[in-house]
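Please predict the structure of the following assembly.
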Amino acid sequence: MYKKIIVAGGLAVASVALVSGQAAGPQRPAARSAPPASTSAPRTSTSAPQGQASEAPATPAPDVAAQRALLDRYCVTCHNEKLKTANLMLDKLDLARLGDQAQVGEKVVRKLRAGMMPPSGMPRPDQATREGLIGWLERELDRHATTHLPPPGLHRLNRAEYANAIRDLLALEVDATKFLPSDDSSYGFDNMAGTLGMSPALLEAYLSAAGKISRLAIGSVTAPTMTQYTVPPGFSQNYHIEGLPFGTRGGILIEHEFPADAEYVFKITPVSEGNMGQSNKAFGQIKGEKLQVTIDGELVKLFDWDREMGQGEGVRFGVPTPRIPVKAGLHKVGVTFLATNYEPDSSLNQPFERATIETGGIPGFVFFPHIGLVRVEGPYDAMGADVTPSRRKIFVCRPSSAKNEEGCARTILSTLASQAFRRPASAQDVGTLMEFYREGRNEGTFDSGIEAALQRLLADPEFVYRRETEPANVPPGKSYRVSDLALASRLSFFLWSSLPDRELLTLAGQGQLKDPAVLERQVKRMLADSRSEALVSNFTGQWLNVRGLQVADPVMLLYPDFDDNLRDAFRREMELFFDSIVHEDRSILDLLSADYTFVDERLAKHYGIPNVYGSRFRRVTLGPDLDMRRGLLGKGALLTITSLPARTSPVARGKWVMQTFLGVSPPDPPPNVPDLKPKKGDANAKEPTMRERMEQHRANPYCASCHKIFEPFGIALENYDGIGKWRIKDEGVPIDSSGVLVDGTAVDGVASLRETLVRYSPQFVRVVTEKLLTYALGRGVEYADMPLVRSIARDAAGSNYRFSSLVLGIVRSAPFQMNIKQPNTEQQAAR
Amino acid sequence: MYLTKKHIPRRTFLRGAGVTLALPLLDAMIPAGTLLAQTAANPPSRFVGIFFPHGMAPGYWIPKTEGTGWEFPLIYKPLEPYREHVTVLSGLHARCAEAAPGETAADHWVASAFMSANKPRRTAGADLFNGTTIDQLIAKKIGQETLLPSMQLAVEDPGAASSNCGEGYSCAYSNSISWSTPTTPLPMELNPQVVFERMFGDGSSAQQRAARRARDRSILDSVTGSLARLRTDISASDRRRLDQFAQDVREIERRLQIAMKASQEAPTASTVPVGVPDSFDQHIKLHFDLLALAFRGDLTRVGTLLGARDLTNRFFPESGLTMSFHAGSHHGEDTTRLMAYAKMNQYHIKMLAHFVDQLAHTPDGDGTLLDHSLILYGTNMGNSNQHLHYDVPHVLVGKASGQLKGGRHLAYPSKTVPTGNLLLSVLDKFGVNQDSVGDSTGRLENL
């Protein structure tokens, strides 16, 4: 484990930054700033928490003139005042005062770090000289860095955070998409404080959610409603589905929050036969199927498919079960077929993986029947709710007589408010809630009183917004440390996308959270906690755009093996893969080259991994023959979302590789680019290979000037087709995935591309840090933050970039713990 | 291969009401007081703005002749029964959707410019700038007395692709076509159930709905009371955001007041739409049904609908085309594919016709709702294959209370008349008189 070097007085020295893998190993920082002391009062920017270089370096910077000469020799040919290439005029850049032009300096550093400059074909300095220049620039930038602490601002809980907060506050699983519209995103994430605005429609949605959720939590829902669950249209039901009982085939597993102890009806609609029209006949010709409905694994109804579901009105409108009594709370409803030993003959010669339901009736083939929809209707004859997790969580006491009702209500509401507001509830808070309690109590029972108060609580701006107080005694323009309670919220919303738990709030309440040792323990505890799955799904879902998989739409005729089972498997693989980095605290460099992945039978088949059976995902080691599946580059999810519906796109993939691993974007495309000619319908027509199409770009110098930068990255991935399947031929011609990258490296296929990216991994570490910092702070990360990004990356080097070391670096950083006091415009206006 | 589309019947809307579609039952729910309270003498005008991205197939939407008496082109064919209410506009130039000088291919991220005619500021951050859209300018004028000043509807959830917006443009520009201020996008509602509850309240009986509205009101009162305390120790910019919240609270209080007055006659049926239908066809029709219903009951006078998001890969199986919207829009100038794309555009117009038909059959004052409405339906590309923004299709349906003469095709000289001119003239029809809007250079002649 990397030992911290503590230097008194917060003196920070930025040393030589990471150098790429070819040079000798990364050098340690000579020293680093002291972590914030546990007892410190709000600090000013000169004694900021980690990562903020603030004092002069211990060693003098090497000669400015030498660096100037390098720029003149290698860069100024294009980037000068006359040509203004990329609007960058390096001849005008005063290296002695680089700190004043940090924005330009950072731009240069980024391009150099990513190996983008000088472009191939132009003279390049040798590796050592290049590293020397980059290191010098970075040191100068770090030396002059100013503390960049813009407060992210009032942060409205976004949809995911709201759902998690409800889960943690009330032990209630809600589908927030039913209550709130989706949030806008900026800087690639939907948790940016500045973008999470309010509007009457949104406020109305929060208000309405408060009513519905409080009724659901108390169990006072009486009016029946209907919830509908759809099996995705492209989902094959020929096999066992993970989570359903063994010995079953297909169907759907639903987690449903039952609002009350009552009777419910489950209405099942089969997939019907025929092409688009309304049909009274279910799809699937195989006879004798039995369909079972289970609740938490208990059989509650068995249907004889042929007699009860296969034909008639029910095919169109659903076949109901009798009313079934269910206790309030979250239960698993399974609707699935009993598996038989029968193998449809079509499965023997079934050429494609795609689910049969997309293909209608094919003469000479028989299929299993499929379920299309399940609707849950109820509650009927609601009896309220007796014992549910929500009620257990809410009712921390029960009044034994009318006399102590008020006291108990106070206890309940003060407990809830403290968690909901993420701070100890004040007498005033409880007083307000008690007004609503009394109003509800007068109209009904003790429970209805609590329900009314809960509704008020959920509509409170202090629940809906993350509010951070600003100290009065700090002058505008000066930085200050956020309160321990605010820090607790920043932590929990970063790592859990949810409210802080009791332990965090207790520590914060005692003023202990800012203590570096306590903070570190808490971060590790939080990362180990299952709630950090939110970080996996929300961060990766957006950073790597795994969410985009949901709308990826490979053309059925060209990719008949792509179905929703594969789509789900892709997503699951990504989650489990990233989850292994987080929960096993692995190096983030494993994202580039880990020799393991997670597959179920479906995905294993797609990847060509033998001996994997069943719907359970398991870790597999990727040996030399499965080298192409290592790291992010080999993941089907990412290869699919970087393809077009009907073909691969070396352009899109090249751009993606550059952005994801090197942190640079290719120039925007010019307007009015004609599309590639589509494939002809005639299967026998000779089509050009993707590589041949791409060659067209190089024939045209105008296209080539940019395409040669990003296309070779994409060409190197041509062995993966549009859904990430490995192939060795394109249009019958062996794939040529060779090319020369912009830095002059010759690559041939994914393995050599991966090696190159590993060589540039210092840049990758920064890109990940930058993204994670953006996500953590809820604001855009700008050039002024780059010294901090470098410092976090440097500090993480000691532990070989373990995930927790990046998270700790962020959590310890000044922007995470401090804000700058804003000028009080209102006071100015009043004067 | 033998590929056909599967079919799952989705009676997502009504429970316990047989097979019928939404409207008949909703019909019964109109608070009698509000509908009949409309005096026959002076019914209000209504405005609807509908946006679909990706242009229309060139050659299939411009009538062969100008003026009146032309033959309906293929795409607009579904509107033929309402000829006297249809005004086809050709030759307009969506300059606001073009890439700004020095920018490239930035034209897929600007649906928001459709009704502002202003080039949105390129930013992925919080400093959005789009200009106020005309639906909101109109709502400020004619929507203030109704329950909802305006309604924003969407048929495609941006959630799944929200980090996919590109070229430095915030997703806000492709998520919302309604902006209440130059910097404030309004969320477009996907869920018909939410729309329904916004119109009629939440609850299974009139009594319950009224009680819940009363509770909501006292909550808002109480929240307003505590806002002053919350404002004290936060930063100036946070205070401004909290003030926005306070303003929104007042707006909701205003609505509740109107709603509570009407709650005596609140709908009695216990049926609400359930969730989001997964077929586009049913989803958009349901939204249109609700909007028509809101017009009938005078619950709102302004609505906008985002028919699809830019770059969408959505299929419209009912149109017969097996390509996605975006893929189809890159028709490669190929005759067969152009025709196929035209069919998809025609299918979208068919959805519009579903709405128009309802308005045409709803008596309103001295005529029908259609007589008193103005529907602006349009896109921001001409030839989408080349991402061209001139010769962009727009069609107006309705007579705007006698202010619009239908049955006409107005052809404007190509590349000279910005869409801002159209917006400015539409504003005129609603008594919102401005000198300019967005990139307008004047008013639209002859409209």
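The longest strand of chain A covers residues 248-258. Chain A has 30 helices and 19 strands.
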